[in-house]
Amino acid sequence: MSTTTAAAPQDAPLSGAESRAARSRSLRLLGDLLRPHRGRLGWAGVLVVASTLGQVAGPALVAVTIDHALPALDDGDGAPLAVYGALFVLAAVVGGLAGGAYVRQAAVISQAVLLELRRRVFRQTQRLSLEFHEGYTSGRIISRQTSDLEALRELLDGGLTGVVSSVLVMVFTAVSLALLDWRSGVVLLVSFLPALALTRWFQKRSQVFYRRQRTASARVIVKFVETMTGMRAVQAFRREATTEQDYGALAEDYRAANYATFSLNGRYQPGLVLIGNLTVVAALAYGGWRVLTGELDVGVLVAALLYVKRFFQPIQQVGMFYNAFQSAAAALEKVSALLAEEPTVVEPARPVALPAARGELRLEHVTFRYGHGPVVLPDLDLTIPAGQTVALVGTTGAGKSTLAKLVTRFYDASEGRVLLDGVDVRDLSTPDLRRAVVMVTQEAYLFSGSVRDNIALGRPGASQAQVEAAARAVGAHEFVMAMPDGYDTDVNKRGGRVSAGQRQLLSFARAFLADPAVLVLDEATSSLDIPGERLVQRGLQTLLADRTAIIIAHRLSTVAIADRVLVMEHGWVVEDGSPEELVELDGRFARLHAAWRDSLV
Amino acid sequence: MPPDTADPTPRPAVETFRGSGAPGADASTVRALGRLLPFVRPALPRLVGGGLSALGASLAALAIPRVLQHVVDGPLAAGARTHDAGALWSAMALVLALGLAEAGLILLRRSLVMLPGTRVEAVMRGVLFRHLQDLPVAFHDRWAGGQLLSRSMTDLGLLRRWLVFGLLQLVVSTATVVVGVGLLVATTGWLGLVYLVGAIPVTVIVFRFSRRFRAISRRSQDQAGDLATAVEESVHGIRVLKAFGRGRDALESFTGQAEELRRTELAKAGQQARINVALTLIPELTLAVCLVLGAWLAHTDQITVGALTAFFATAAVINGPVVDLGMTLSMTLNARTAVDRFFEVIDTVNPLTDPDDPQVPAAPEGRVVLRDVTFRHDDAATPVLDHLDLELPAGTTTALVGLTGSGKSTLAMLVPRLYDVTAGAVELDGVDVRRMRRADVRRAVAVAFEDPTLFSASVRENVLLGVDDDLPAPERERRLREALEVAQAGFVEDLPQGLDTRIGEEGLSLSGGQRQRLALARAIAARPRVLVLDDPLSALDVATEEAVTARLRDVLAGTTSLVIAHRPSTVALADRVAVLQDGRVRAVGTHSQLLATDPHYRYVISSLEDDAAEHGVGALADATAEGDGDAATTRETTLDDEATGARL
Ligand SMILES: Nc1ncnc2c1ncn2[C@@H]1O[C@H](COP(=O)(O)OP(=O)(O)OP(=O)(O)O)[C@@H](O)[C@H]1O
Ligand SMILES: Nc1ncnc2c1ncn2[C@@H]1O[C@H](COP(=O)(O)OP(=O)(O)OP(=O)(O)O)[C@@H](O)[C@H]1O
Ligand SMILES: [Mg+2]
Ligand SMILES: [Mg+2]
């Protein structure tokens, strides 16, 4: 668990073409997310214009007041002053209110976008196949959903608010300046050239830096999540120091990556300010010279210079926005890459309807390997008639769980077909398949939340009575009632509040509640005490009376309730028959069975 | 399914995990942020330098319009009459100098604060991580992963940004406003004072805003943490969600949570909008008054036109920072929330620490004694272990047998001191484990957990987890091989990269039995004095189990072992058996002794008489159906009678 942290292909530096593709995918996603909000964005634009008008009107009104109302007042006419004063108030009110409304509107848009993106990523995560999850790790998905989204949020919240008004202020100011004195406007325009060059320089570098930062942040998160998840083992095996070192190194990478983006930005921003200030000097020189030659009014020069200065005041904000934009674009590259993943187990385009499955299973020459690994199931040919209870036994690693995962379509067969009621499972819609086939996995995972919610996962919307009945059927009711809040007790993360056996019972209760046509139980009673197991089996006998079941178990006690036993060895079914037949046969099963019986007391 | 969406706070901190200095809701923001000082202190000179440069930069910015006014009002206007260009040159030089100074100072400020900003963040992140690793398992049982993660990433990120931008911005904005207003008052008297009056309502509003905003900000950051937890669980539990086809329900529940966060964020934006309106409207309205008043003052020649121009130019410079103040303030309040949340974890007192004067056993042989041990989980009403006594003599193997939920695993976790007893003591070679250093205890005791708890690393790294790094490589390799051999984990040779194959997150690219054997090998490789095996063979088939048992017996000879067992085949590893019931060890003896004398043991371990059980289970089902209170006892007695009956 030390040093190496998943350095998957996504983390490798990108080539030129890949880089462009990633960037354009990222921008497409951003456009895609913003498109439904065009109307709102438009309204936000209106608000910004109004608020900016309010802001820009201020100095203009001051200028006209000084230039016109003051002489008028000196001439004994107070009316213009009153008018301009009133206009000033109006501008203030409009500007202020519009500004506030804009902040809200921007938040509405940004939060809607974030919600949508969160949902998309979540849906995609659920949609993707296990094969994907085995390689991607939960930490990276969490980092997509948290720190990457945080980057986008920063852009939408801070950046966007700032930049729209800034750019508008700049545009208004520039236009006002051009109207006032077009020559000063030209000076302003010329100053754009160095600003653009600087921005281009920044863009190129920041793209690289921000990508590095995203990767570094994901690595820190991956390590963090994994350590917290495995804290028992970390502490029991005194791994704290090593883990801290590893984590420290990753955190330092992340810090360095952050530092790199900051210092880049730390040169970009003052660069922009410098360009702005030099432009003011240039405008002063040019304007001052024209004042000296009498071409220009002193009053106009004051206003022009104030406009130029004002023009550049929001330049840092624009720079900041661009910076946030680069950061968000890099983050969206990662997110959009996740969204672009295609599940290996695909939903059929035209699913065959299977409203009520009977539960006949057939595996036709199924071959399977995980990814490019060794072949786990070389060639499996098997029919399980509807209603049959099959016990699947065999050495560990023989491929029992793999077989179960094919039947439940966690994976697709590499070759051959898996048929449910004669329909290829690849042609079934996920809801149909999941309704028909349910599996209790070897890992009994409970979600934090109440006992009830955990059991009701088997059938959302189940009533308390149904939940309780399921719990009783597996013998979980007593211990649940003994917990402080009964069915409302929070089982804590991963069901840490209940014992391993109790966890299995609760997982089992889920399956009872789900009531599928085909039930697959993968070592579902391995951690139970013997009385508990007996009780579960008793319940199973009633439950399985009319449905197909595959029961994977090492404890051969299960076999007692099976109609048929399959013995697996290295991916092959080596024995197949009723328990009695197999005992007669005097093969592997007979030996296993004898050994098992001997072990009993 | 996923977590209780309505609960915005982290798990209720119960007894042991109450922060010592739990920040009261009324603690001031300044004081809260002041807690950063120890972390920030080394960076303080640079931060102050950064602040000064920022101040300088904004002073330069502030000066530029005044210089412009000065130029226009005086020399330039005069020069226009006299055609004297000299004034222009010097004015340009001055503006240029100021402009260069501003840009230079911004550059300086950024380069000064950047390094400490990121350092402070990294240091705090490290401190948090170390503390989390130090905190006992009981803490991690109850704190959701997302809450910890969001503290480590989001909150510390917020803090860094605040330190680098927010804090300085706050200082600079405030300073700019103060200096600006000072200038206004000093240079334009009445006008400035009028402007100053506007500050009164602003202050009041800002104050009220802070209070409200803080509450919302806390809610939002907590909700974000919960959301992260939901994501984590939805990925860790993906197999269950897929097996039941509950992806859509999970999405709905997640959407509900995300929706709540969105509402909170909108409420936050609402507050932000209000403060923005206040901070724009009030100064602007004040300026409107000033405009009329100023015009009248100029009209009555109490003020020059140039001064009036300068007044508004300066006011325009102040306006920006005043509006910024709204943003900066919320940033500061968010940072304060982050600090609070950070220290909530840091302040959590670790009740399970190393003693000041650690002891080491005089004669380390591996004898474990649980003396009058009572253990109650923090959030449970009744103790799981109740005045329990048990001795594991050195070198012997004891099987611990009891019903599901009887407290076997809990007892096992007490030995390596992953939990501390509520009362009584656990002694290792005559020394209370609480008087020893945790590392020493855990070096002496190795555990194979009932859930394998593997890491996404190579097989080698996983198995050698408990082996000291400073051991010579050949010795490490030898232990690795031996442990794998004992655990019958020869399958690792067939993995794509053999021992260097990464086994996927939590080892989930292995079969159940393969994972369990690696966890077993890991405990064996540590070569402990005391080996705790929690149901170590549950996922193995009969044949493999036999093979492991045979080899394990050799290893266990001479090592004190506690083996938790549900099956007779596992019990077979042990010299003696302890039966756990109702929180106590009710009997200790050999398997056959107990079988003969202890009905509860018979009940727990015996699965014979499928035939009789048929009968028994029937009775049991009835008993369970009737009993609602303490049905477990009912079912036991029933079965006991049956079993005894069958035997007789
Ligand atoms: N996700 C995976 N990726 C790669 N290989 C895998 C994966 N899951 C299982 N395997 C390999 O496939 C083989 C069969 O595994 P499977 O889980 O089907 O065994 P099993 O019969 O269920 O064993 P057990 O009784 O131990 O649970 C094993 O060698 C295992 O290492
Ligand atoms: N963190 C916790 N908080 C509260 N109660 C807990 C916690 N962990 C376990 N318990 C309770 O303590 C009891 C003992 O649990 P423990 O895991 O020790 O049982 P066990 O004997 O190992 O059972 P199993 O055979 O199923 O593994 C159970 O009733 C369980 O619900
Ligand atoms: Mg399996
Ligand atoms: Mg246990």
Task: For this entry, give a set of tags.
heterodimer, A: 601 residues, alpha/beta, ABC transporter transmembrane region fold, Rossmann fold, 20 helices, 10 strands, 65% helix, disordered N terminus, B: 648 residues, 4 domains, 9% strand, disordered C terminus, binds adenosine-5'-triphosphate, binds magnesium ion
Topology of helices and strands:
The complex is a heterodimer of chains A (601) and B (648).
Chain A (H helix, E strand, L loop, with lengths): L15 H19 L3 H37 L4 H49 L2 H7 L1 H43 L1 H9 L1 H38 L1 H6 L3 H53 L5 H15 L2 H26 L20 E9 L5 E10 L4 E6 L5 H8 L7 E6 L2 E2 L5 H7 E4 L10 H6 L7 H11 L2 H6 L17 H15 L3 E5 L7 H14 L4 E5 L11 E6 L2 E6 L1 H7 L2 H12 L2
Parallel strand pairs in A: 3-8, 3-9, 6-7, 7-8
Antiparallel strand pairs in A: 1-2, 1-4, 4-5, 9-10
Helix pairs in contact in A: 1-11, 2-3, 2-5, 3-5, 5-6, 5-7, 5-10, 5-11, 6-9, 7-9, 7-11, 9-10, 9-11, 15-17, 19-20
Chain B lengths: L28 H6 L2 H4 L3 H39 L3 H49 L2 H6 L2 H44 L1 H8 L1 H38 L1 H6 L3 H53 L5 H42 L21 E8 L9 E8 L4 E6 L5 H7 L8 E6 L2 E2 L5 H7 E4 L10 H5 L9 H14 L25 H14 L4 E5 L7 H15 L3 E6 L2 H4 L4 E6 L2 E6 L1 H7 L1 H7 L4 H17 L4 H17 L1
Parallel strand pairs in B: 3-8, 3-9, 6-7, 7-8
Antiparallel strand pairs in B: 1-2, 1-4, 4-5, 9-10
Helix pairs in contact in B: 3-4, 3-6, 3-11, 4-6, 6-7, 6-8, 6-11, 7-10, 8-10, 8-11, 10-11, 15-16, 20-22, 21-22
The complex binds adenosine-5'-triphosphate (ATP) (2 copies) and magnesium ion (2 copies).
How would you sum up this structure, described in words?
The complex is a heterodimer of chains A (601) and B (648). Chain A is α/β, with parallel strands linked by helices and 601 residues long. Chain A has two domains: 22-340, ABC transporter type 1, transmembrane domain (ABC transporter transmembrane region fold), CATH 1.20.1560.10; 361-599, P-loop containing nucleotide triphosphate hydrolases (Rossmann fold, 3-Layer(aba) Sandwich), CATH 3.40.50. Helices cover 65% and strands 10% of the residues of chain A. In chain A, the strands form two sheets. Chain A has a six-stranded mixed β-sheet, with helices on both faces. Chain A has a four-stranded antiparallel β-sheet with strand order 2-1-4-5, with helices on one face. Chain A starts with 15 loop residues before the first helix and ends with a helix. The model of chain A is unreliable at 1-10 (pLDDT under 50). By secondary structure, chain B is α/β, with parallel strands linked by helices. Chain B folds into four domains: 1-34 and 140-350, Up-down Bundle (ABC transporter transmembrane region fold), CATH 1.20.1560; 39-134; 368-588, 3-Layer(aba) Sandwich (Rossmann fold); 607-648. Chain B has a six-stranded mixed β-sheet with strand order 6-7-8-3-9-10, with helices on both faces. Chain B has a four-stranded antiparallel β-sheet with strand order 2-1-4-5, with helices on one face. Chain B has helices at 29-34, 37-40, 44-82, 86-134, 137-142, 145-188, 190-197, 199-236, 238-243, 247-299, 305-346, 408-414, 438-444, 459-463, 473-486, 512-525, 542-556, 568-571, 591-597, 599-605, 610-626, 631-647; strands spanning 368-375, 385-392, 397-402, 423-428, 431-432, 445-448, 530-534, 560-565, 576-581, 584-589. In chain B, helix 20 (599-605) crosses helix 22 (631-647). The interface between A and B is large, with 205 and 214 residues. One adenosine-5'-triphosphate sits between chains B (141, 377, 379-380, 384, 402, 404-410, 450) and A (496-502, 527).
